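Interim report, section 4.2 (structural modelling).
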Amino acid sequence: MKTDADVKNLSEVLEFIDSFLESVNCSPKAQMQIDTSVEEIFVNIASYAYPEGKGTADIDIYLTNNNTVCIELTDSGKPFNPLANADPDTSLTASERKIGGLGIFMVKKMMDKVEYVRHDNCNKLYLYKKI
Amino acid sequence: MTIEMKKDEKSLILKIAGRLDTMSAPEMEKAVKENISGVEELVIDMEKLEYISSAGLRVLLSAQKTMNGQGSMKVINVSDTIMEIFEITGFSEIMTIK
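Predicted structure of the assembly:
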């Protein structure tokens, strides 16, 4: 699906993801982890990919072999590899912890594999998760 | 998401149900901010919470920081899936989870 990169379209994106996952009998736990990951990435695209104005996001989901789902999220915004950021230090106390920086980290932990490529002036992120 | 609130003189109980995500986190943040003054014990009941994203975690962290300065906070009735997210992110170490 293609949609405007706007946070208000998040529920539409998750409905698209959920209807696919339900059709392939995804486990509830994997579904929640996939939903959370797609939310983090989509919200990042909506918030940061197009600082100059509006843009779109493309979301695709399909089964690969080994009962694994792949979700592709593409934007044509400024080059940004979310995987290049350092992970937050999860051993710090509450007062030392910064508010934020957790989204991508959660995605990396919850998905089996995450890949980034910059291709044809687009950012493409691939999320893989066994269902 | 729905929030059910019970407030006594010094304690505040927030029962949150549904999805604590990017869309609903501001509402939760508002509920905490508007009611936290003078509270010494904050309880967040997650029995009916189905989903939490990093936006929800940010609200919890900010509430925890406030309560560290004025009392205590505990999170109760956490499901296995949400507990796993707390563990992944280290939140299980910084919050009291019962």
